[in-house]
């Protein structure tokens, strides 16, 4: 029973100090004399004399010896009480610009029909063949925008506006064969590289302008495009077909 108890005490000591094993020990005793020597690793010169004397006694059948030895490998790497693991998440979104412009190419053909001129024989000569009123068109889409910094661009194919391609000769003091027009686009967005709530944005190409550009940050909203050809006051219009093309471009930067 006494040996079992000693064993339990030793195990408790090992559990309480896991960082290092206990040093090797040698205990010697001789009958009728009591303990004659205890040495613990690392051994020095005096310990060596104690061991030598007691080992000689044991060789002659005198006394006894008790040894303890404990060893265990250390941690494979330095122990760490706190571990931080950082995960880097990545993904990508393609740059895209969208503009819903109807389901067919015909939806993008803006036909003013007959552009009325003053044809009455009772008109003053200074008013004859002048435009009766402005030619106007409004285009609206509920889906437009880009998901990155972008440029909104408007380009006319001819700075003169709509041009008569039928080729009649005419007195340039009294007639003209082109109808100037302006284009104004309006939407809700933000300035380029701006992070803020969107607000009203506008881009206009005037009567005498060919193109214009406005830089924007990512935006999505409805867009309205107004085309306005005001009345030409001082000249009549040559008869024929007037054509012009305007291109709206949304371009991710």
Task: Summarize the model shown.
This protein is mainly beta and 253 residues long.
Walkthrough of the structure:
It is a single chain. Strand 1 and strand 2 form a beta hairpin. The longest helix has 15 residues. The protein starts with a helix and ends with a strand. The protein is mostly beta strands. The protein has 2 helices and 16 strands. The strands form 5 sheets. The protein has a 5-stranded antiparallel beta sheet, with no helix packed on it. The protein has a 3-stranded antiparallel beta sheet with strand order 2-1-3, with helices on one face. It has a 3-stranded antiparallel beta sheet with strand order 12-6-16, with no helix packed on it.
What is the number of E strands? Answer: 16
Helix residue percentage? 10-25%
Task: Give the mean pLDDT.
Answer: 88
Q: C-alpha Rg, in Å?
A: 50 Å
Overall shape: it is rod-shaped
List the strand order in the largest sheet.
4-5-13-10-11
Given helix and strand content, the structural type is: mainly beta
Summarize the helix and strand pattern as letters: HEEHEEEEEEEEEEEEEE
Largest sheet: 5 strands, antiparallel
Report the span from N to C terminus: 88 Å
Helix run count: 2
pLDDT below 50 for ≥5 consecutive residues: which ranges?
1-17
Q: How big a fraction of the residues is strand?
A: 35-45%
Topology of helices and strands:
Elements: H1 2-16, E1 25-30, E2 34-40, H2 45-59, E3 64-68, E4 97-99, E5 135-146, E6 150-156, E7 162-164, E8 175-176, E9 178-179, E10 182-189, E11 199-205, E12 211-216, E13 219-229, E14 236-237, E15 242-243, E16 246-252
Protein name: DUF4402 domain-containing protein
Signal peptide: 1-21
Keywords: Signal
